[in-house]
Each structure stands twice: as structure tokens, then as C-alpha cells.
Write a structure and sequence with these properties.
Order of helices and strands: HHHHHHHHHH
Helix content: over 70%
Oligomer: single chain
Distance between the termini: 91 Å
Number of helices: 10
Shape: globular
Length: 252
């Protein structure tokens, strides 16, 4: 690829990142199909969708300030729409308690958090400093998002089960992080590139854990040896009783 210019490579990786990110945004569709079918979102959490909406909104604002960041604008604009639909469906089918909890999350992340970032960046910073401030906020927030699977990885190690860490999702998240790293690298946007280094390593770690524990049996296997020995012991006990108390009393 030495004969390709940085702009061309950035376009290729940006396009690839858009496609994979779009597939990742669509990954929860089976979950929301179940919610709509059951007409209840009980048992599911709204945190991932609220955080994803906040992340997409921050990156959309950053791309707007940066100018000419069409690859970032396109996927995060689509992401905001998709996550909004998810949150609406979740709230519509949520119980009263879950609905209030979700609305508090939306208020905290998507209204309060984004509002503070917007006001501070607009009122206290100008030009390149404004872009740098929002860029750093996006980078730190994305690092926290990438670190979120640590709890799942811990659960996999503790339970020796990959039930809640599907390989396909880990694989596509790794591809997504790789694409956006190279996009950021070739356009020299390290606010985009650096968090995706962490995303790549976490993705690889998840896939390694998957291959380590994918063949582990769930739970503890029952011990059938005891059941096999019980009948013989029972016969011995019955024989001793008959000898001590006589056949007549033992049959009562």
C-alpha cells in the first residue's frame, strides 16, 4: 500500500469502519425483537444504549467542530438515530421502575453531560483549543467504553463460560477498532486513533478468552459414583437389620 496516499488510505479505512460500525449498531436487533415480541423490556439493561448514544453524540459534535470529518459524521449520525430508536422502544416497554431509571440515565448522560460539554466548549474555548477539548473528552469517554467489557471478561474467567461474550461481537468490535485506528492514524487525528489501540487489545483479549473457555462444561458435573454404590450399601444394612431384629419386625 506504499503507492497509496494517506488520504486514500484514510478513506478506505474510514469506509470500512463505517460498514463495521453500522453492523455493530445493528447487533442488538435480536434483543429488541424479543422486547417487542414480549412487550416488556424487563430483564434487560438500558445502560449500553444510553452510553452508546452519548458516545455517538460526542463524536458527532467533535466532527462538526473539526470540519471535513465526513466519515465520523456519517456513522455517528446514523448511530444516534439507531440508539434513539432503541431507547424509545426500551422505555415504551419498560416497567415503571425501569422506565424512571432509564430516563434518569438519559438525563444524566445525554442531556446533562452533553449539555455541559457543549456549553463549556462554546463559552470557554475558541478555535483549535475547542476542538482539542472536545477531542480529549471523546478520547477519554471512548477509553471508558472500551474498558467496559472488563467486567464480562472477569465473569468469563470466574464462571469458565463464554455464554455472555459471543465471539462474533468480539471479532467485529476488534475489526472496528482496527479500522478506526488506521483512519485516525492516516488523517493524523490521535483523538480517534489512540482509544482504538485499547479497543484492539481488549478485543484480542476477549477472543483469546473465548478460545480458552469455549469448550469448558457449564456448571459442576454430578457425581454418579455415589448413586452406584448406594444400592449395595442398602442391601448390607437390610441384611444386618434382619439378623439383629428378626424377619418379622424388619418387614413392618
Amino acid at each position: 500500500m506504499a503507492f497509496l496516499k494517506d488520504e486514500t488510505l484514510a478513506f478506505i479505512f474510514g469506509l470500512f469502519g463505517n460498514i463495521i460500525s453500522f453492523l455493530v449498531f445493528l447487533a442488538p436487533l435480536p434483543t429488541f425483537y424479543k422486547i417487542c415480541k414480549k412487550k416488556s423490556s424487563d430483564g434487560f439493561q438500558s445502560i449500553p444504549y444510553s452510553v452508546a448514544f452519548c458516545s455517538a453524540s460526542l463524536l458527532l459534535y467533535y466532527a462538526y467542530l473539526k470540519k471535513n470529518a465526513y466519515m465520523i459524521i456519517s456513522i455517528n449520525g446514523i448511530g444516534c438515530v439507531i440508539e434513539t430508536v432503541y431507547l424509545i422502544i426500551f422505555v415504551v416497554y419498560a416497567s415503571k421502575k425501569s422506565k424512571m431509571s432509564t430516563l434518569r440515565l438519559i438525563t444524566l448522560f445525554n442531556i446533562g453531560g452533553l449539555g455541559v460539554v457543549f456549553l463549556v466548549s462554546q463559552l470557554a474555548f475558541k478555535g483549535g483549543k475547542r476542538v482539542s477539548l472536545v477531542g480529549w473528552i471523546c478520547a477519554i469517554f471512548n477509553i471508558l467504553v472500551f474498558a467496559a467489557p472488563l467486567s464480562i471478561m472477569r465473569q468469563v474467567i470466574r464462571t469458565k463460560s463464554v455464554e455472555f461474550m459471543p465471539f462474533t461481537l468480539s471479532f467485529f468490535l476488534t475489526l472496528c477498532a482496527t479500522s478506526w485506528f488506521f483512519y485516525g492514524f492516516f488523517i493524523k487525528d490521535y483523538y480517534i486513533a489512540l482509544p482504538n489501540v485499547l479497543g484492539f487489545f481488549f478485543g484480542i483479549s476477549q477472543m483469546i478468552l473465548y478460545f480458552i473457555y469455549k469448550n469448558c462444561k457449564k456448571g459442576v458435573e454430578p457425581n454418579f459414583e455415589l448413586n452406584e454404590t448406594v444400592p449395595s450399601h442398602k442391601k448390607d444394612i437390610e441384611k444386618n437389620l434382619k439378623e439383629e431384629i428378626g424377619p418379622e419386625n424388619a418387614s413392618k
